[in-house]
Design a protein that fits this description.
mainly alpha, 6 helices
């Protein structure tokens, strides 16, 4: 014989549905429940948003790698100032980690993530241009291309709808 487990009574006002991100499902209506399921439980993100998240993630990984390089060179190498090299490495690691968090937010369609991503791309443009003018076009041109592509992807209509929704 199978033993039955008594169910616990629900608190008053609890519809008994699954809660996602602090949002309770609608209490009644098949149409409202279908809309809730479509938008909250299984959201579909456009390809442009995914591509933007990948580009921002790659930028974050490059900056984390550069920060690690600076930190190691500060200890192993012969910098003019060990303290400055370590601080620069730590700041680069922190900035890269921040960009990785922004990339995750973009991938999930979070509104807050578009502003820091767009600001990073706008600030990357003069950096890339300075590298091109400084005789390093092999670094500067990809920086400019990634920044422009990410800005375009972030503000496509499909991405806008995903951020607003």
């Amino acid at each position: 014989m199978a033993a039955t487990v008594p169910s616990r009574p629900r608190p008053p006002g609890d519809p008994g549905g699954r809660r996602v991100s602090g949002v309770a499902p609608p209490a009644a209506g098949a149409r409202a429940l279908a809309e809730y399921s479509r938008r909250v439980l299984s959201p579909r993100r456009p390809a442009s948003l995914f591509a933007a998240a990948v580009l921002v993630c790659l930028q974050g990984l490059v900056i984390v790698a550069f920060g690690g390089y600076l930190a190691v060179e500060g200890v192993v190498g012969d910098p003019s100032s060990v303290v400055n090299a370590e601080i620069a490495g730590a700041l680069a690691l922190l900035a890269g980690a921040g960009l990785l968090a922004v990339a995750r937010g973009i991938g999930r369609g979070r509104r807050w993530s578009r502003s820091p991503a767009a600001l990073t791309q706008v600030l990357s443009l003069p950096v890339g241009w300075g590298l091109v003018q400084g005789g390093r076009p092999e670094i500067g041109l990809p920086v400019i291309a990634v920044a422009v592509a990410t800005l375009v992807l972030l503000f496509l209509p499909a991405s806008n709808a995903s951020f607003e929704g």
